[in-house]
Amino acid sequence: MNNSIFLPEIAEVISTRQLTAMEKYIELKIKETRKFNFNPGQFIQLSVFGIGEAPISISSSPFNKDTIGLCVRKVGDVTSAIHKLEAGSYIGIRGPLGNGFPVEKMKGKSLLFIAGGLGIAPLRSLINYVLERRDDFAKITILYGAKNPGEILFTNELELWKKRKDIAIDITVDKPDDNWSGKSGVITRLIPPLDLEPTNTYALVVGPPVMYKYVLLELQIKQIPEDNIIMSLERRMKCGVGKCGHCQINGVYVCMDGPEFSYHKLKFLSEAI
Amino acid sequence: MNDILIFKEYIGTFCNNLKEAFTVYGVKQKEEGFYVFDEIDEFSDPLKDYKPTILPPKKYLFPQQETLLRFDTQPYPDIKPVIESWKQILFGVRPCDIHGISLLDKIFTTDHEDKNYTQKRAETIIIGIDCLEPCYEHAHCASVGCLNVDDGYDIMMTDLGDSFYTSVKTLRGEEIIRKYSEYTEACKEDRERFLRLKNERENKFENKIKTDVSNLPLFFKNADNDPVWDELNDRCLGCGRCNIVCPTCYCFDVYDCMDLNMTSGERCREWDACTLKDFAVVATGENFRSTRGQRLRHRFNRKFNYLMTKYNASFCVGCGRCTRSCPVNIDVVETVNAVIKNNRNREDE
Fold this sequence. Notes:
The structure holds 2 protein chains of 2 kinds.
Chain A: E1 9-18, E2 23-30, E3 43-48, E4 52-57, E5 68-73, H1 77-83, E6 90-97, H2 103-106, E7 110-116, H3 120-132, E8 140-146, H4 155-163, E9 168-173, E10 183-184, E11 201-206, H5 209-221, E12 229-232, E13 248-249, E14 252-253, H6 254-257, E15 260-262, H7 263-266
Chain B: E1 4-7, H1 8-18, E2 23-31, E3 34-39, E4 65-72, E5 78-81, E6 88-93, H2 95-109, H3 115-122, E7 124-129, E8 155-159, E9 163-168, H4 171-180, E10 184-185, H5 188-201, H6 216-221, H7 227-235, H8 241-244, E11 252-258, E12 264-271, H9 292-311, H10 321-325, H11 332-348
Parallel strand pairs in B: 2-6, 6-7, 7-8
Antiparallel strand pairs in B: 1-9, 1-10, 2-3, 4-5, 4-12, 8-9, 11-12
Helix pairs in contact in B: 7-9
């Protein structure tokens, strides 16, 4: 009886950290004494009992098997309830779900991370993975765009990444304020100046739907092969296991076939972006 | 077990006997011309000429609302799966609806088994009633290959007038026949009569779709920008009735309900409909199928392309319920034929 696909396991909130006005980072530990193995880019269905369930991408490093880190934006009922949780609270999780980024195929290649807004959350998991295995990859470039300086996530970590000599990182905001000394403008402007080796590069792109269209254009101008452009999609999900129909894009299910897709696959799906 | 005859005078007794061990659901007339599957109290003869029920019998396997979990949050979360099932018989199911259930069997067992469905299915015995005449004008079962049914039932009965020619497909079907029914072995003449009726029906069921059903995925793959979706966009109300009455629609919503004490409660699922406006809205507000035309296109593609390609079977079983229930008379056959015709016209250009 205990193999219902809807049965979550219980996790304890270990810590919470307010990142911005809208985003909170929460760290979970599952109660079962097992290691939580996942691929960067996978997600979980997170339950606040009495409120509901929502799909949240995993933001922590897959090398950390003891806790699970999530960056949660307050946008709906479940995420608002998550924001109210404090250390010591209990929630339910199902997962890891989905497939994650094709890390094996990416080995030996240069990586171009393009994160828009909350898109940094799932990419952070992958970035931490590749930084841990730095020698497995060629050039690493991280582009990160936020609406305004106040919405930049993981600022401490960004500072650490900036200090590293073995990666390049560039950050821009759409609307700078008086204290902002960095670049301003949309993230797509960071792409043209890059010196890329297109066939040897994987572009990992996560951001709001509006960003994809323009980023794709720039990446195609750079002649990155369609198979090497990987995007992660957001959809509403009620089951996470290919049944409820909510995340379906044309013939594919984001939960089962994604949430990461190559542009080669997505370009045939009219409802994708 | 060889084929048998069950005389009509014994059908009532058979059905009533089944109630000793099973919950028996059969067809009742709700009002003139409208039929429903409901629990049978006193058996009357509903099997003759009934039009497709308002809702298909899938509701006994995948109920409109269903509890998935019960939880208590205090002092520490205690979560229990809820999988309810009981021994049930669906009595008098038409071939189209048997096909519908067989397709749901595929859905709920593939990739991740959905125990809430499969456990109910395992405890369900299906007694089919074959169709010798088209039941109503909206039926197009023959066009989608769903008039004949070889699997997915335990017992199949065919009306010979004074008796039902009865083929028993499964062991558990045989068990209930032996235990609960009066019957006689069918003789050679009975079999000939049965086969003659089956033969005669072939001409009565019109092939309404203007291509072989197996070609439909190709037509739909090429119809993303077909004008038919613009036309339907202007007519469709986005009410979701076509989804709700469909034997193969299985999309659902999941929600939590707290008890009055606000510490314990349930997680439930409920039928949802991909033609409703909010179905594909994401948290940030984008709607990836924001128009009614796009949502209908999605629904038709699920029936004739996406799921059909994955499972190699039409996900429209031809019952015509969607056409019957559409408040603006959107007709599934007309729509499919328009897609075919527009494709052919594009070929000509």
